[in-house]
Each structure stands twice: as structure tokens, then as C-alpha cells.
TrEMBL record:
Stated name of the protein: Cytochrome c oxidase assembly protein COX20, mitochondrial
UniProt keyword annotation of Protein transport present: no
Family assignment from sequence similarity: Belongs to the COX20 family.
Cellular component terms per the entry's GO annotation: mitochondrial inner membrane
Subcellular location(s) per record: Mitochondrion inner membrane
Native source species: Pongo abelii
Main location (coarse class): mitochondrion
InterPro entries, alphabetized: Cox20 (IPR022533)
Length: 118
């Protein structure tokens, strides 16, 4: 019999894996892309069915809509995620430089303020 977890300990949750390898909970942008892709498939398939009344072709359009919308959202979100990570890294490096040089003769703000008062 397994012991019950303590109230302060985090519970181990089984993460949702899509196709056995895509961890939807822990992969950035995965959940967002899958949800929008499923909505895109319903809209594309149902819209095609309303115009043509062809069931098989509408299902094909729905699958195509899912693939296109999912990939489009995935690439857009991952691009923005990568851009944000780069900006965060640059800001972190600048903060480290600011902390390192603050109050020394290498501080750019100090040189600027010191030269204007002379």
C-alpha cells in the first residue's frame, strides 16, 4: 500500500503526452497551438461542408485546417518565445554589468555626470 503524500509535498501528476512524445503541459506553446488547431479544423471542415455538402472532402479540409492552424500557431508562438528569451538574456547581462560597474571608475553614468559638473 502506497503512503499518502504529506500536505506540504507537491503531488506527482501524470503529464498529458500527445502522440507519446509531446508533453503538452511542459512544452511552451503546445497547448495553445493544439487548442487553436482543433478550433481551426472545426471551422474549416464545417464551413466547407456548408458550402459543398460533401462529407468526405469536408473531413479532409478539417484535417488540413488542423495541420495548418496548429503549425502556424506553433511557429508564431515559438518565434515570439525565442525573441522574448533573447531579450531577457540581454536584460540580465545588462543588469549584471550595471551591478558590477556601479560606483567604479568604469561606470558610464558616473563619467557622464562627472564631466558635466566640471
Amino acid at each position: 500500500m502506497a503512503a499518502a503524500p504529506e500536505p506540504g509535498e507537491p503531488k506527482e501528476r501524470k503529464s498529458l503526452k500527445l502522440l507519446g512524445f509531446l508533453d503538452v503541459e511542459n512544452t511552451p506553446c503546445a497547448r495553445h497551438s493544439i487548442l487553436y488547431g482543433s478550433l481551426g479544423s472545426v471551422v474549416a471542415g464545417f464551413g466547407h461542408f456548408l458550402f459543398t455538402s460533401r462529407i468526405r472532402r469536408s473531413c479532409d479540409v478539417g484535417v488540413g485546417g488542423f495541420i495548418l492552424v496548429t503549425l502556424g500557431c506553433w511557429f508564431h508562438c515559438r518565434y515570439n518565445y525565442a525573441k522574448q528569451r533573447i531579450q531577457e538574456r540581454i536584460a540580465r547581462e545588462e543588469i549584471k554589468k550595471k551591478i558590477l560597474y556601479e560606483g567604479t571608475h568604469l561606470d558610464p553614468e558616473r563619467k557622464h555626470n562627472g564631466s558635466s559638473s566640471n
